[in-house]
Amino acid sequence: MLYDLRHSDLRVRWLVTLLLATLGTSYLFGAWMVALYAGFSPRKVAETYGPAGEAVMAMQMPPEATVVTERPVSMGEMGEEMHHVDRDLLVQDTHVHMPMYAVIAACLSVIALGLPLSRWKGLAIIALLFAAPWLDFAGMWLTKLASPGFAIVTLAGGWAMALGYTIVAALALWQMWSPRRPHPLTPSPRGGEGERNVLSGESSL
Amino acid sequence: MKTLLLGAVTAALVHITPTVVLVKRQDAVNRLLPGADQFAAREVHLSSTDSRRVHDAVGWEPPDGMITFYIGKHQEQVTGALMFMRVDSQHGPLELAVGFDPRGTVRGVEVTKATVETKPWVLEALRAGLTDAYRGLAPDQAPAGAEKVKSHIGAMPGYMAELVDKGVMHAAAAYRLFYGRK
Q1: What residue spans of chain B are helical by DSSP H?
Q2: pTM score, two decimals?
Q3: pLDDT for res A201
Q4: Which residues of B have a CB under 8 Å from any CB of A?
Q5: Would the CB atoms of B26 and A73 count as touching at under 8 Å?
Q6: Does domain B16-178 have CATH number 3.90.1010.10?
Q7: What CA–CA distance (Å, rounded) separates B47 from B45?
Q8: What is the mean pLDDT for each group of 10 consecutive residues in chain A (205 residues)?
């Protein structure tokens, strides 16, 4: 443990709690937004990020010759815009969202570093936090460029993001505010890796 | 920690602001396809050769190689066609509705969507009469709405006007090259 969040100053624990609450709220609205604009099924995600138009599943590559189709539509259908992310918009989305995802993953990782976890568990959580946005955008690009079947990768990224947040938030809130958390001077029962007494600064290694 | 905070602030600043609807799509359809009571969507899925053609003509390729013309009809007679065009910028996308009459000249242009950031700039350009400049424009004529309003508006509204010009130019090229394609 690089620092001990459990026994950190009350202001630090308050900051982390509010950060987690704010991120959690934004994640809930993020899920709502996904439901509105993309959906949670591989088919819906493939329709959003795959090639445009009616023959979304069938037509991956440009046709040999230009194909024209015509179908009647209602006024309502013209008003309803199907949310479709084309290549240019995906470039913009990737550029705008990847840095923000990296900052969120870094914040959650810094919180995880302050929790009494083994080195391997810490590494696994950090890997999960950063893998989520990579999976998310890799899925979108592969859906667009390779096959609609890769929509499942985007869904996996979304669920990984939720899982990473839930693990860190649950552990951090429990460790910071549990009345049963150990006193700062009490040695860790397991003498975990890198455990350090926050007052003396001595490492248990 | 300083770097993290700086990163978070930077990320927040570069984030594109949310989309706002300036004109509902249905209202744009009513204004640009007046009198139409039947509608059809003509979808043109372009070959690589045709995509290159439009790119060579106006430096733009339709998103995912697809162009959709919405055609308005009254008693089986075509009253006009309409295209929704997206124009991207670093401040977020604009959406235009560009309407054509049956002769192929521009009947009108509506800016249907902007972003929270670009909305005031777009409105300033519109108040200066930007879209009046497109009425009657032939598909092979270059739109010059921005040039007409730029001296009356600020720099960013002028930039928005240039984006609208660009969208009209793309729509006109698509109409000229592919509307009549069967």
Answers
A1: 2-14, 25-32, 48-58, 119-127, 145-149, 155-178
A2: 0.63
A3: 43
A4: 4, 7-8, 10-12, 14-16, 24-26, 29, 38-48, 50-51, 63-66, 68, 70-71, 82, 84, 86, 88, 93, 178, 181-182
A5: no
A6: yes
A7: 7
A8: 86 95 93 83 83 50 82 83 75 88 95 93 96 94 89 93 96 89 60 46 41
In chain B, which residues have their Cβ closer than 8 Å to the Cβ of A65?
Answer: 47
Mean pLDDT of the B88-103 span? 91
The pair of three-digit structure tokens given for residue B11, joined into one six-digit string: 């990320």
Residues of B in contact with A92 (CB under 8 A): 16, 88
What are B11-57's pLDDT values in tens digits?
444 556 778 899 999 999 999 999 999 999 999 999 989 999 999 99
- Domains of chain A: which residue ranges? 5-55+82-177
Q: Is the ipTM of this complex over 0.90?
A: no
Neighbouring C-beta atoms of residue A160, cutoff 10 Å = 19
Task: Tell me how far apart the alpha carbons of residues A133 and B11 are, in angstroms, rounded to a whole number.
Answer: 15
User: What residue ranges do the domains of chain B occupy?
Assistant: 16-178
CB contact under 8 A, A66 and B64: no
B43 min Cα distance to partner chain A (Å): 5
